[in-house]
Design goal:
The protein is α/β, with parallel strands linked by helices. The protein contains 15 helices and 10 strands. The strands form 2 sheets. The chain has a 6-stranded mixed β-sheet.
């Protein structure tokens, strides 16, 4: 049938406007890019689940899921993969798109890795004071960095993306949307699968810190999705000094507009992030920076290698919960995360001069932790 005899005439249907957004070349590239990201996942083994022996809590087992063993050295490797797939499959990332992110470091390192994998330029907008080690790692993967005050990194990143016709990944908004919380080997499914042969396979508590809130949202939703663990497992979020998450959890109406940035990179936020979902969290615990850093040093000695400050934050909250379980005469298990390696924080939490400059007194928390080693609960 010729165009002139087509039944779909403009006289009947009115003006028809159409536009091809993605040509065949872009679609082919997106298909290849998704395959590359998925192939990277297939080449990666799952992260280890380590048992932390403590005589102070007989009948209570504590586990650390070691997310520092990802190719980019942190839990954020999972998030970066999900954000790239989310951007690709939503048509936001093409073969020449500049990727832009606001990040305190670890997410930017992981996104720089995936940007290099796909041959895309990458810019990280990082808070002033981000560790030099993290900057070097971003640059190692081909990324560039721009610095901004912590409270303005979001606006700065968005402006960079607009000026370059790039894509602002916006982890703080899309972290909880980009991850398939029902499974697909996300961190929750992996964690619970690894616990299956343990004496208490359904943990009493899973404890995580929140930066974007994506990890807590994924785990909290997965617990509710799986009825066999829903009645047995609770989710606790540990929050550091200078973060608004705990205040928002207690009273969503009275969330402070801004708080001070956290000393612990990667956790705690000066604003209530869209990806933090308090309705799937059972409890929050505020942990002082001094206690978090003391716990970081303590567990680093136990493991024989340094871990990051967010791990100490997670662990101190976990020990509080274990102590409460012991006081109630309960047995069970608790699981928390090693989020990244301590080598990224040689200039801060593992630097005595920095600790003194921040006026942090670690001694009370160190004494408490030493008592655990002596067997006292």
């Amino acid at each position: 049938m010729s165009p002139s005899t087509s039944p779909f005439s403009s006289a009947i249907l009115g003006d028809i406007a159409s536009r091809d957004r993605n040509g065949a070349t872009d679609r082919d590239w997106i298909h290849r890019a998704v395959n590359q990201v998925e192939a990277d996942f297939q080449r990666s083994a799952d992260t280890h689940l380590l048992k932390l022996p403590l005589r102070a809590f007989p009948g209570i087992d504590i586990y650390l899921k070691d997310e520092s063993t990802h190719p980019t050295g942190s839990l954020k490797h999972r998030l970066a993969r999900s954000l790239f797939l989310y951007g690709l499959c939503n048509g936001k990332i093409g073969p020449t798109t500049r990727i832009v992110e606001a990040s305190s470091g670890s997410t930017a390192i992981s996104e720089a890795y995936f940007a290099r994998l796909l041959g895309l330029p990458f810019t990280a907008v990082v808070p002033e004071g981000t560790s030099a080690r993290k900057i070097k790692e971003i640059e190692f993967f081909g990324g560039t960095c721009e610095f901004a005050p912590s409270r303005t990194i979001y606006q700065h990143a968005e402006a960079v993306a607009q000026a370059s016709a790039g894509h602002y990944m916006d982890q703080f908004t899309f972290a909880e949307r980009a991850t398939d919380w029902r499974g697909n080997n996300n961190i929750a499914e992996s964690l619970f699968e690894q616990m299956q042969k343990e004496p208490h396979p359904a943990p009493s508590w899973v404890v995580v810190g929140a930066g974007t809130g994506g990890t807590s949202a994924t785990i909290g939703r997965f617990i509710r999705y799986r009825p066999e663990i829903y009645c047995k497992t609770n989710l606790c979020v540990a929050d550091p000094e200078g973060s608004v998450f705990l205040e928002g959890f207690n009273d969503p109406v009275a969330i402070p507009a801004q708080c001070n940035p956290s000393r612990l990179e990667g956790v705690g936020r000066p604003r209530f992030e869209p990806s933090f979902v308090p309705s799937v969290v059972d409890r929050m615990i505020r942990v002082s920076d001094a206690a978090s850093i003391a716990a970081t040093h303590w567990v680093s000695q136990k493991l024989g290698r340094k871990v990051g400050g967010s791990t100490g934050l997670n662990l101190f909250a976990t020990l509080i919960l274990a102590h409460e379980m012991q006081a109630r005469g309960e047995a069970g298990s608790l699981v928390t995360l090693i989020c990244d390696a301590g080598s990224r924080y040689a200039e801060t939490i593992f630097n005595e001069d920095w600790i003194k400059s921040e006026r942090l007194d670690l001694e009370p928390a160190k004494a408490m932790l030493a008592a655990l080693d002596a067997g006292a609960g």
